[in-house]
User: Which sequence fits this backbone?
C-alpha cells in the first residue's frame, strides 16, 4: 500500500481493477479545509489520460508492472509482430492492444511491453522517434523556422504539424507523447 505522500511521476497504481500511471501530480493545501492531491492519471491499457483528486494521506495499492524490451518487426493484417530482445520469442498483438500508438511504429523500433502479472497492459514507445515525411505541401522560398506550420503525413501514416520549410523526404524527430515536431535531422 502506498499513500499520496509517495506519489511521483511514473509511479503505477491500481484503482477500480485497472492499472494507472501518474503523469502529473500537485499537492494542494488550501487555506480552508483539508489538503488534497490533484493528479493526471494515464490508463496503462487504453492510454487515456484523466484528472483525479485524492485526499491527502489516502492509501491505494501499488501496481507492480514489468517492462520487457521488445522490437517491432512487422504488421500482418491488423496484427503487430514484436520480438522479445532477451529470448527472441515473437508475440502478436492486435490493433486494440497497441491502440493509437501504432501510428509511430516503424520496423526495427525498440519499445517496452508493460505486463501486470501475466496480463499485457500496454506498449510504451520511446519519448521521441525519427521518421521521414512522406507527404506535405512543398516549402516556399523565404519560409523561415519561425514562420508558421503546415500538416505533414509521415512514413508511418501519422499526421503532425511541421514548419513551412520542410519538404517530403526530410527526416524529423517527433515527440510521441505530445504528437509534436521537435527538430529536423541532418542526413
Assistant:
Amino acid at each position: 500500500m502506498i499513500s499520496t505522500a509517495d506519489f511521483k511521476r511514473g509511479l503505477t497504481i491500481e484503482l477500480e481493477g485497472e492499472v494507472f500511471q501518474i503523469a502529473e501530480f500537485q499537492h494542494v493545501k488550501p487555506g480552508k479545509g483539508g489538503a488534497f492531491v490533484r493528479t493526471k492519471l494515464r490508463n496503462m491499457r487504453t492510454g487515456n489520460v484523466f484528472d483525479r483528486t485524492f485526499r491527502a494521506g489516502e492509501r491505494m495499492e501499488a501496481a507492480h508492472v514489468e517492462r520487457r524490451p521488445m522490437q517491432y518487426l512487422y504488421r500482418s493484417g491488423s496484427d503487430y509482430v514484436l520480438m522479445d530482445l532477451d529470448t527472441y520469442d515473437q508475440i502478436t498483438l492486435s490493433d486494440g492492444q497497441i491502440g493509437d500508438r501504432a501510428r509511430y511504429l516503424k520496423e526495427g523500433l525498440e519499445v517496452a511491453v508493460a505486463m501486470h502479472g501475466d496480463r499485457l497492459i500496454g506498449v510504451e514507445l520511446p519519448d521521441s522517434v525519427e521518421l521521414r515525411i512522406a507527404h506535405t505541401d512543398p516549402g516556399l522560398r523565404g519560409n523561415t523556422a519561425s514562420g508558421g506550420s503546415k500538416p505533414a503525413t509521415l512514413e508511418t501514416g501519422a499526421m503532425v504539424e511541421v514548419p513551412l520549410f520542410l519538404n517530403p523526404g526530410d527526416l524529423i524527430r517527433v515527440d510521441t507523447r505530445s504528437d509534436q515536431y521537435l527538430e529536423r535531422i541532418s542526413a
